[in-house]
Amino acid sequence: MLLETRTLTKAYTPETTAVSGVSLHIAAGEIVCLLGPSGCGKTTLLRMIAGLTRPDSGTVWFEGQEITAVPPHLRDFGMMFQDFALFPHKNVFANVAFGLEMHGWSRARIAARVAEMLALVDLADFAQRDVTQLSGGEQQRVALARSLAPGPRLLMLDEPLGALDRALRERLMLDLRQILQRVGVTAVYVTHDQTEAFAIADRIVVMNGGQIEQIATPQALYARPATPFVARFLGFHNLLAGVVAAPGVVETAVGQLRIDDETPAVGTAVTLLLRPEAAAIVASGAKQEAGLQGTVTAVSFRGRYLQVWLAVAATRLMFELPITYDLHPGQTLTLALSPKSILIL
Ligand code: ADP
To answer: Residue 337 belongs to a domain with what CATH number?
Structure first.
């Protein structure tokens, strides 16, 4: 294990605990995203790993050594923030060289390393350019080259793409993952954007109220959110309370639902997640048994599918249905639910 935190806790005020008992393992070469809504403690956790914030309790370990009290500049960690603050009066070369000069590298070694880093971020021809003459995306890549140049033992990134527009962010996500992988650097990446976390991370740590809610690969997180909080945060709307009525059957406010997921003992209270792709329209007049009948309350064209909101009694559910259907609010719809697209959280 390269980096480990053991029950890290930090409260800025007696009433609010920013980070509470967080234990985390990060392997060498891993890219780990801390994901969660604003205020959930991501930055505080990152700052404690960096040594910028002193934990109230708990410890930080690196390569088996406790480093909780080691000052930030002696940790050899690199950092990149949203406000990546390049030196505006220096050119690209000088910006990337800055940390190396601080470390007392020779001129020749600096020149070679800067060239290597600029090639890595695809800015080989930009060395003499003023940083003020770069686009936002180019500046961001210079900042990345600068933070990677000294060969940090760990790279920390706090919302590094936060200031960029959406299209640029989409592209840089891919670049960023590829560059981090090519260098093989271990990275801790803070974001509140699930798309970004999915695109960049090997593993995602979902945080809520200063605690870890779930740790999983992006694929596993999407396939099986562990808690209602994680499900909602990932954009799943259809959460239903229910009680197990029989093996594979759960009684809910919208009726009895069959599920493939393993059910706990009969009588157990559970939360179900109905995936948006769980439903298929049952043609009117068709003989159907497990249909879910409701009234369409909203339809939104999403390109590859229709997002359809359905009111079933007092419950509102959202499904993605083929665009070939002509659906409109007020219509009554019968849907067949696929038992394999319903999960127990
Ligand atoms: P995130 O990065 O997930 O947005 P933070 O770690 O910045 O979360 O903040 C966690 C909690 O701690 C929030 O409630 C925030 O208001 C509080 N907090 C953060 N920094 C400070 C500070 N310097 N002083 C007091 N409270 C703070």
So the answer is: 2.40.50.140
Mark whether 269 and 138 lie in a shared domain: no
DSSP 220-245: HHHH--SSHHHHHHTT---EEEEEEE
Structural contact between residues 8 and 50, judged by C-beta atoms closer than 8 angstroms: no
C-beta 219 within 6 A of ligand 1: no
H or E stretch at 172: helix 166-183
Predicted model pTM: 0.91
Check if 39 has its Cβ closer than 6 Å to any atom of ligand 1: yes
Q: Which residue has the tokens 């009895």?
A: 256
Residues 182 and 326 reside in one and the same domain: no
List the one residue out of 176, 156, 196 whose CA is nearest residue 72: 156
Q: Tokens representing 65?
A: 């050594």
36 lines ligand 1 (CB under 6 A): yes
Angle between helices 136-148 and 92-102 (to 10 degrees): 20
User: Are 190 and 229 in a shared domain?
Assistant: yes
Give the CATH number of the domain where residue 219 resides.
3.40.50.300
Q: Which atom of ligand 1 is nearest to the CA of 44?
A: 6
* Predicted confidence (pLDDT) per residue in 286-345, tens digit: 665 558 999 999 999 999 999 999 999 899 999 999 999 999 999 999 999 999 999 999
| Token digits of residue 50 | 């960096």
Q: Which atom of ligand 1 is nearest to the CA of 34?
A: 3
The neighbour count for residue 105, using CB atoms within 10 Å, is: 18
Q: What total number of domains does the chain contain?
A: 2
> H helices within 103-165, ranges in order?
107-120, 136-148
